[in-house]
Design goal:
Largest sheet: 6 strands, mixed
CATH topology: Rossmann fold
Order of helices and strands: EEEHEEHEHHHEHEEEHHH
CATH architecture: 3-Layer(aba) Sandwich
CATH class: Alpha Beta
Strand content: 15-25%
Number of domains: 1
Radius of gyration: 21 Å
Shape: globular
Structural class: alpha/beta
C-alpha cells in the first residue's frame, strides 16, 4: 500500500476572474522508502503540492490518503496530530527560534507530545549527535553557520521519528561544501527506510533520488525512476547548458529552466484564433 496517495488533487486560490490554479488535477502515488526529487520552475506548484502532502494546506478538490487513511478532510486537531506523528519538515530558511538554544529548538516538537523537559532534551541531544552538532547544543542560531543551521533543522525534523521527511529547497542558501554535508545526511535518513520528498532547483542533487518528478503550471509533466548516484541524461543536458553562469543561484535557475524546456508538455499548444491573427496584423500595419 502506498504511504502517499493523491488522486485528481487541485488547489485554487481566489474567486471568479481572479482565480489562480496552483495545482491542476494532480495524481501521485509514493511508496514507503522512496527518495523523490521534485523539480520545476518557480510557480509550477511544487511547494503547494508539498504543503498539501505535509498537511499544512487542504486541496480544493480531490482525495489525499496518508498511510491508507483519508487525510484531505481531517479536522484541525487530527491534522495537527497526523502531521506531528508522521511528517518532518526541513525549510530553506531553517525556521529556528532565535531566542532558544539549538537543543531547545530541536526538542520543541516533543513538547507537543507532553514529554517532560528532561526527556525532551535527552532525545534532542541524541539526534544532535547524529547530525554532528553535539558540540553546538547550547549555541544560539545566530552563532551557527548556514550548514550547521540546516543540520539543526534536520535534527528538529527527525526528533519525532517521522516516516516522511519533506525538504523544501534544503540547500538553497548553502555553499557547495555545506550542500554536500546536508545531502549526505538526507541520504542517511533515506537509507534508514524513511520516505524523503525534496523540492530543489539544482539538477545535480537528483543523484541522491530514486525518482524525479517535474512540474509545470500546476501539473506533473514527467515522472521517472532513477538509480541513486546517477543523473538522468535529460538532466545532464540541462546542466551542460548553464556552465556560463557564475552565481550559484543563477546557475540553479538556469539549470531548471533548461531542464523544463527540454520536457515536452502533455497539453497541446493553444491554437491561435483568427481574431488574434487579425489584431496582430493591425498592430503591424500601425507600426509601419
Amino acid at each position: 500500500m502506498p504511504i502517499i496517495e493523491i488522486k485528481d488533487v487541485s488547489k485554487l486560490y481566489g474567486f471568479g476572474d481572479a482565480t489562480t490554479v496552483a495545482l491542476d488535477e494532480v495524481s501521485l502515488s509514493v511508496e514507503k522508502g522512496e527518495f523523490i526529487a521534485v523539480m520545476g520552475a518557480s510557480g509550477s506548484g511544487k511547494t503547494t503540492l508539498m504543503n498539501i502532502i505535509g498537511l499544512l494546506d487542504r486541496p480544493s478538490h480531490g482525495d489525499y490518503s496518508l498511510s491508507g487513511k483519508n487525510a484531505s478532510r481531517l479536522h484541525s486537531k487530527r491534522r495537527a496530530k497526523a502531521r506531528r506523528d508522521h511528517i518532518g519538515f526541513v525549510f530553506q530558511s531553517y525556521n529556528l527560534l532565535p531566542r532558544l538554544s539549538v537543543i531547545e529548538n530541536v526538542a520543541l516538537p516533543l513538547a507537543y507530545r507532553g514529554m517532560t523537559q528532561t526527556r525532551r532534551l535527552k532525545a534532542a541531544s541524541t539526534i544532535l549527535e547524529t547530525v554532528g552538532l553535539s558540540d553546538r547544543e547550547y549555541y544560539k542560531p545566530h552563532q551557527l553557520s548556514g550548514g550547521q543551521l540546516q543540520r539543526a533543522s534536520i535534527a528538529r525534523a527527525l526528533v519525532n521519528n517521522p516516516t516522511i521527511l519533506i525538504a523544501d529547497e534544503p540547500t538553497g542558501n548553502l555553499d557547495s561544501s555545506a550542500t554536500r554535508v546536508v545531502m549526505e545526511l538526507l541520504a542517511d535518513v533515506h537509507a534508514l527506510g524513511n520516505t524523503v520528498l525534496m523540492v530543489t532547483h539544482n539538477p545535480a542533487l537528483t543523484r541522491y533520488a530514486t525518482r524525479i518528478i517535474y512540474m509545470r503550471d500546476g501539473a506533473i509533466v514527467y515522472d521517472e525512476a532513477t538509480a541513486i548516484g546517477e543523473i538522468p541524461d535529460r538532466v545532464r543536458r540541462a546542466m551542460s547548458q548553464s556552465f556560463k553562469q557564475t552565481a550559484p543561484r543563477e546557475e540553479d535557475l538556469a539549470n531548471v529552466s533548461a531542464l523544463m524546456n527540454a520536457i515536452p508538455s502533455k497539453r497541446p499548444p493553444a491554437r491561435r484564433t483568427s481574431k488574434t491573427k487579425r489584431s496582430k496584423t493591425k498592430k503591424r500595419s500601425k507600426r509601419s
